[in-house]
């Protein structure tokens, strides 16, 4: 993930309590709690190097080990030689039910057909704000991951995940 020209890994992918904290390829810890990506120094003791993340204390060597073992760490920090996976608009159906769904789509028809998910933020006037170029998620996991990413990039922003349930077309009523 690129934030302020830094390739960093979101620690929230390891533990939801680490929201707003990131690690670079060298194991340095960063925070976006002030709105900008800021390197943290932690505290050194004879027992090790420690960081307090959302009122919880963590040893740096344990954090580094956990992060480097995560499937997304090498890709997000730029260590991987291969690019990040590209979103795919594919649904394999067997007996009318989705068997394998991958990624995201910009197709509302696909999202309606498979009852996908979409995101919005809560605006300052307590109204939902949608992207003008909406992305529909084909799996709940990718929607949740994207909601966490957006909330982390914009601290204090409330992100809503909504499930596509039904649609109706005028000119006679046809429910899908």
Molecular structure report:
There is one protein chain. The chain is an alpha+beta fold and 176 residues long. The chain folds into two domains: 2-77, no CATH class; 90-166, no CATH class. Helices cover 20% and strands 34% of the residues. The protein has four helices and 18 strands. It has helices at residues 60-68, 73-77, 108-114, 140-153, and strands spanning 2-3, 6-7, 9-10, 21-23, 29-31, 38-39, 43-45, 48-53, 56-59, 90-94, 97-102, 104-105, 117-122, 128-129, 136-137, 159-163, 168-169, 174-175. The strands form seven sheets. The chain has a four-stranded antiparallel β-sheet with strand order 3-4-5-6. Strands 7-8-9 form a three-stranded antiparallel β-sheet. A hairpin with a 2-residue loop joins β7 (43-45) and β8. Mean pLDDT is 79; it is low at 82-102.
Kindly summarize this structure in a few lines:
With 176 residues, the protein is α+β, with helices and mostly antiparallel strands. The protein has four helices and 18 strands.
Labels describing this entry:
alpha+beta, 176 residues, 2 domains, 3-stranded antiparallel beta sheet, single chain, 4 helices, 4-stranded antiparallel beta sheet
Question: Which secondary structure elements does this structure contain, and how are they paired or packed?
Answer:
Blueprint: E1 2-3, E2 6-7, E3 9-10, E4 21-23, E5 29-31, E6 38-39, E7 43-45, E8 48-53, E9 56-59, H1 60-68, H2 73-77, E10 90-94, E11 97-102, E12 104-105, H3 108-114, E13 117-122, E14 128-129, E15 136-137, H4 140-153, E16 159-163, E17 168-169, E18 174-175
Antiparallel strand pairs: 1-2, 3-4, 4-5, 5-6, 7-8, 8-9, 10-11, 12-15, 13-14, 13-16, 17-18
